[in-house]
Amino acid sequence: MNDDTSKAGGDLRAVTLHNGVTMPTLAFGCAFGDWVGRTDFQGFLPEQAWRAVSLALDSGYRAFDGARVYGTERIVGTLLGQRFASGALTREDLFITTKLAHPAAPPHINISHKRTWDPDKVDDIAQRVRDDMVDTLDDLGLGYVDLLLMHWPGGFGQHTSPDPDFPRQARATIWRTFCELADKGAARAIGVSNFTVHHLRQLLEDIPEPERRPTVNQVEIHPYCRNPELEDFCRTQGIVVTAYAPFASGALGMLQDPTLTAIAERHGKTVGQIVLRWHVQSGRTALPKTSKAERMAENQAIDDFALSDDEMQAIDALGTGEARRTCPDPSFVA
Ligand SMILES: NC(=O)c1ccc[n+]([C@@H]2O[C@H](COP(=O)([O-])OP(=O)(O)OC[C@H]3O[C@@H](n4cnc5c(N)ncnc54)[C@H](OP(=O)(O)O)[C@@H]3O)[C@@H](O)[C@H]2O)c1
């Protein structure tokens, strides 16, 4: 067994964002349901969050990744409120992420139209963002979030505006509104999600103040879906990359991959632990989600071993070629 943890270096439990805010490396994913279609397709099932988030708090998770569209913020807020009331937790113990501005969802996902909107279908984009933020904070029962992300760079279909620059302008408007919310204290840090290099470059041109650049880009990354070019770009800009669907949502047969299984056996760890260790050793943060208490503990126990350079490269090699995704490809967003 290889127990040389020195290779990874640094603090693997937290990262410091460019605005000085400290963010835990692992946050518990709060999207529940089956949007990949492994079973009879059900879309989001927020009711599963009650038990899972409660167990996750018991298991020691203090960072939670949510979004307006998941429909779980009232549940998370209620469960946190119980712990605030008992004195078991204070607000400062937690790192809460939300995501706003999710466009009308692909037809196979059952998200309420009240939780999604296409920028070209609302009269006042900035006001819609402000209103959604009020609803999110009300549901969470919090005065601020630790991290606010723009959920998607734009609509999945063709936008109806005749102006080809509209999607870019809409992103800039949403981003300026996020800056305003951060300035008012509603979010300690702001970032983006599902942004490609193209979307990031445009945003950095449109809002050139370095201190206003995104702190985080949350994107789909797992051993079957890699994007080294995007990660390199984010690194040069000081933007932390967070891997969503770090286990490929349990789909694509990834957790049964023979390369991962062999590495797991060599270390006496589970495939889940190997995958999470690969994420953090690669310098990204990750959002593991599970409904099972034993896996919640397992997914946090990744500090007592390290992957060798050969093992890191072998896992990297699984993601060469076309990415196998569980969510839509954001490069199709204009
Ligand atoms: N920004 C975005 O657009 C976006 C999109 C998708 C997801 N996300 C975020 O990313 C989070 C995680 O993504 P995800 O929910 O799609 O899935 P995920 O975390 O990649 O995978 C969850 C699946 O893996 C299984 N699992 C968890 N730990 C395991 C372990 N140690 N060994 C074996 N299997 C394990 C779970 O099964 P059990 O429950 O049976 O353990 C579940 O089926 C979401 O909850 C959300 O917060 C963001």
From TrEMBL:
Name of the protein in its database record: Aldehyde oxidoreductase
Gene3D superfamilies: NADP-dependent oxidoreductase domain
Keyword NAD among record annotations: no
Keyword set includes Glycosyltransferase: no
UniProt xrefs under Pfam families: Aldo_ket_red
Residue ranges constituting the NADP-dependent oxidoreductase domain according to the UniProt record: 42-318
Species of provenance: Thiohalocapsa halophila
UniProtKB keywords: NADP, Oxidoreductase
Family: Belongs to the aldo/keto reductase family.
InterPro entries for this protein: AKR, Aldo/ket_reductase_CS, NAD(P)_OxRdtase_dom_sf, NADP_OxRdtase_dom
